[in-house]
Q: What sequence folds into this?
């Protein structure tokens, strides 16, 4: 057989029918993740056509986007931002019952951001095809799965047939050589990559991240990298599974057990790009060059080292972005005054993210006037963090410790910044108004977010990290 | 879906590059459980001033943009979130076709599935269209051409299956459902293979514990 890429192996294994010039391939989907925002119209379509789920046991639902992150009142009433949000959640609860879908709802100890709980449950596994009505489904590619976001019409397709109509995407290799310097995070790496290839650099492609620096990343760090593949326009991001992957998965609720586990690992080990396989496009990056990186504009491609001067606008649109952000070309982002810090989102809300930030905040206080929201990615992360006392560290520093959810990443549950406020955010999108109308978002790593919260200005985390380690 | 063969309209131009789906429909309007009525909030934070009046600076608020159903947009239109609310909002607002030199993957897919033409043109003609708002364009889905007022024609390419569905007014779920037997056979074969690997009956191995691997 011809040498194949990791992507091609997973693609081929899921072809019900191959594509022809006239028709796309029919691709089988192993795992379908659902949340309340992009599913109601799809379930309505099923009802209208009197269809059932083709394989309900391959769907998994959770509540995350519209959900409040403040606790319920004494009477059990949850502080939804508006009746529509409440109705949307109730709708998914009702649809899950009617169609027999497993829902991690309010009562579940595993509720959380959809892209945090899939891996946590061991539902996300190497070699799978995984979809969700959510563009950051690319996160799951960290396990060597082919995982991508779909629209609501396609959510209906998967519910009804467990399949999607797809044209085969192109492939792109991003090889990251060397090692990330101390104090430089996976978030800095992916921001630097998007800054380099651009927000449309991956359009039409599935990216495979490879190289020494990628192999050295933990699973959480790999998820951070794959999560933001879509910010480069890519369909998906993938990393070949290895011992790090297997060790992380073993023993998780939905992972294979006993002899099944050994057989599964044997199969998963085949999921690597063969020597001699070719990509449509290749990019090589030297990890040693990466430093703490932040965004300065209104899309994730406008990313630079925090101590580098903001580049001058080349177009009227770029000028608008600089005006919106109130940044001055020639000045670095480092030192800019901060109003709000958001630690959370499917990019950076896992336990190690919280640990790094808590390590910096321990024994310190937020700068006067700074508001900080810490939102764990899932109930599991919340419980684990509380067991380690991280919530106490955040609270003692003056930060708010919230319940899991998307929160200020998308600001549709009421958690939002005020017009004009500058938010240092560990999320993935700095679009105009993403964190509240008029809010100015600077994307950064958890360490940079924590350092900036203390300094009240965008700050280099490396001095604090050195102290935290010492 | 109604069949779509041709569209004729003046163009409205939104020259900004990288217009993301958050700008097309801000997240706070996504708490809806229906597809209807999103047009009011299409480009909401760009289109309306804080006092609720129309922002005169916003390109689509200019008098000459009124009634245009073809939107010429800057490069990489529709990037960001996968929300299908973006094409729903555009259609409800009255846009029937979006033209750019590059359109984000998920948005393009979503748009075509809802009968919103997403058309990618080469740089030179795209640049010309950006510079000439309000020209009368003809879009022919059968011939895959756009025609300028002076009669010049430019070809575009639509994914053949999406084009077929547009022309016939067929929806893609119908097509997928027709593949039911093939899908059933694929699922049976997979379950059998997993059962063989794990030494179980196909019935026992139905629980989705492992991916397909190779
Ligand atoms: S945390 Fe943000 S990016 Fe992730 S799923 Fe939620 S809204 Fe989307």
A:
């Amino acid at each position: 057989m011809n040498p194949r890429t990791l992507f091609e192996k997973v693609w081929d294994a899921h072809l019900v029918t191959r594509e022809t010039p006239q028709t796309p391939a029919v691709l089988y989907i192993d795992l379908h993740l659902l949340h309340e925002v992009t599913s109601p119209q799809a379930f309505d379509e099923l009802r209208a056509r009197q269809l059932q789920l083709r394989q309900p046991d391959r769907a998994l639902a959770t509540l995350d986007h519209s959900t409040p992150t403040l606790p319920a009142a004494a009477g059990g009433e949850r502080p939804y931002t508006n009746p529509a949000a409440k109705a949307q959640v109730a709708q998914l609860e009702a649809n899950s019952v009617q169609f027999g879908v497993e829902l991690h709802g309010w009562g579940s100890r595993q509720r959380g951001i959809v892209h945090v709980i899939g891996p946590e449950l061991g539902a996300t596994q190497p070699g799978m095809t995984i979809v969700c009505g959510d563009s950051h489904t690319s996160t799951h590619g960290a396990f060597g799965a082919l995982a991508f976001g779909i629209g609501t019409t396609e959510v209906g397709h998967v519910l009804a047939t467990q399949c999607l109509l797809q044209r085969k995407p192109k492939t792109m290799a991003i090889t990251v050589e060397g090692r990330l310097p101390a104090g430089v995070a996976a978030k800095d790496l992916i921001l630097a990559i998007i800054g380099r290839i651009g927000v449309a650099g991956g359009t039409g492609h599935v990216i495979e991240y490879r190289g020494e620096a990628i192999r050295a990343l933990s699973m959480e760090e790999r998820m951070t990298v794959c999560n933001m593949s879509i910010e480069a326009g890519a369909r998906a991001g993938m990393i070949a599974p290895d011992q790090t992957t297997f060790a992380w998965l073993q023993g998780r609720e939905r992972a294979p057990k006993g002899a099944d586990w050994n057989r599964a690992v044997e199969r998963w080990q085949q999921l690597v790009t063969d020597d001699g396989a070719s990509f449509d496009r290749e990019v090589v990056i030297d990890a040693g060059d990466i430093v703490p990186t932040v965004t300065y504009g209104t899309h994730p491609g406008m990313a630079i080292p925090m101590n580098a001067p903001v580049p001058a606008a080349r177009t009227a649109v770029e000028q608008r972005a600089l005006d919106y952000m109130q940044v001055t070309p020639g000045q670095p982002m480092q030192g800019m005054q901060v109003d709000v810090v958001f630690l959370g989102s499917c990019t950076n809300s896992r336990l190690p993210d919280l640990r790094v930030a808590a390590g910096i905040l321990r024994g310190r206080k937020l700068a006067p006037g700074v508001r900080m929201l810490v939102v764990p990615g899932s109930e599991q992360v919340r419980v684990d963090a509380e067991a380690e006392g991280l919530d106490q560290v955040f609270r003692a520093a003056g930060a708010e410790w919230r319940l899991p959810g998307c929160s200020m990443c998308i600001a549709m549950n009421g958690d939002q910044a005020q017009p004009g406020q500058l938010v240092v955010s560990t999320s993935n999108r700095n679009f105009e108004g993403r964190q509240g109308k008029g809010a100015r978002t600077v994307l950064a790593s958890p360490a940079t977010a924590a350092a900036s919260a203390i300094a009240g200005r965008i700050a280099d985390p490396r001095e604090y990290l050195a102290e935290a380690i010492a | 879906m109604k069949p779509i063969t041709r569209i004729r309209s003046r163009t409205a131009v939104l020259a900004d590059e990288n217009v993301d789906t958050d700008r097309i429909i801000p997240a706070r309007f996504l708490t809806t459980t229906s597809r209807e009525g999103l047009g009011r909030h299409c480009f909401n934070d760009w289109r309306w001033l804080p006092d609720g009046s129309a922002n005169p600076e916003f390109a689509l608020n200019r008098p000459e943009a009124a009634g245009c159903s073809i939107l010429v947009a800057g490069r990489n239109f529709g990037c960001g979130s996968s929300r299908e609310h973006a094409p729903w909002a555009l259609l409800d607002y009255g846009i029937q076709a979006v033209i750019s030199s590059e359109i984000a993957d998920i948005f393009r897919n979503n748009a075509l599935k809802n009968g919103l033409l997403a058309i990618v043109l080469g740089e030179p003609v795209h640049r010309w269209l950006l510079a000439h708002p309000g020209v009368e364009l003809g879009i022919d889905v059968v011939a895959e051409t756009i025609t300028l007022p002076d009669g010049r024609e430019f070809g575009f390419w639509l994914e053949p299956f999406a084009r077929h569905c547009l022309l016939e007014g067929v929806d893609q779920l119908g097509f997928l459902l027709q593949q039911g037997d093939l899908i059933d056979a694929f699922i049976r074969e997979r379950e059998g293979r997993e059962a063989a690997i794990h030494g179980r009956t196909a019935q026992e191995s139905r629980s989705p514990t492992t991916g397909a691997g190779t």
Remarks:
- The pocket of iron/sulfur cluster is lined by residues A 64-65, 113-115, 134, 136, 345-346, 406, 409-410, 427-428 (CB under 6 Å).
